[in-house]
Amino acid sequence: MTPPVVQEETTGCGIAAVANILGKTYSEMKAIANGLGIYADDTALWSDTQYVRTLLNNAGVTTSDDEIPFTLWDSLPDTALLAIKHHQENGKNFWHWVVFKRIDGKAMVLDSAAYLDSNIRTDFFEMEPKWFIEVTSIL
């Protein structure tokens, strides 16, 4: 497994999460996103699911049509975009994007936050996912 992508902008978690799924660097994914009119400083990137879906679909990756409420870590698919740090500002929902991966039965979360000591997380009890988007096919 390649090292997780770390977001290079404070609000670039959606771009970094998609880069982690697609195996691209942050700068490669940012260039693709910008070409599609998606920018890290747009708060909709972490308050609307359509942007990450667009980036994944553009790469030929299929996702679940809806956000699926999180229940248990064991019930997650092998790859999923998770919404953690869910909160509201002025009645609008916001979250931090991370990627859940299960490789050879080992579960982990790729968290692009630059302040973390390790961007591969297994401290599941610390994260409180609200919901997830299943990634159903990766090229």
SSE layout and pairings?
Elements (H helix, E strand, L loop, with lengths): L12 H10 L3 H10 L14 H9 L3 E2 L4 E2 L9 E11 L2 E12 L2 E5 L9 E2 L9 E7 L2
Antiparallel strand pairs: 1-7, 2-7, 3-4, 3-7, 4-5, 5-6
Helix pairs in contact: 1-2, 1-3
In short:
The chain contains three helices and seven strands, in the order αααβββββββ.
List keywords for this structure.
alpha+beta, 21% helix, 29% strand, 139 residues, Peptidase C39 domain-containing protein, 7-stranded antiparallel sheet, 3 helices
Q: Shape, please?
A: globular
Count the E strands. Answer: 7
Mean pLDDT: 92
CATH topology type: Cathepsin B, Chain A
In the CATH hierarchy, what is the superfamily? Cysteine proteinases
Q: Domains counted in the coordinates: how many?
A: 1
* N-C termini distance: 16 Å
Name the structural class: alpha+beta
Percent in helix: 10-25%
Number of helices: 3
Oligomer: single chain
Q: Can you name the CATH architecture?
A: Alpha-Beta Complex
Q: Which ranges are low-confidence, i.e. pLDDT below 50, for 5 or more consecutive residues?
A: none
CA-based gyration radius: 14 Å
The main β sheet shows up as: 7 strands, antiparallel
How large a portion of the residues is in β-strands, by DSSP E? Answer: 25-35%
CATH class bucket = Alpha Beta
H/E series, N to C? HHHEEEEEEE
Organism: Marinomonas fungiae
Protein name: Peptidase C39 domain-containing protein
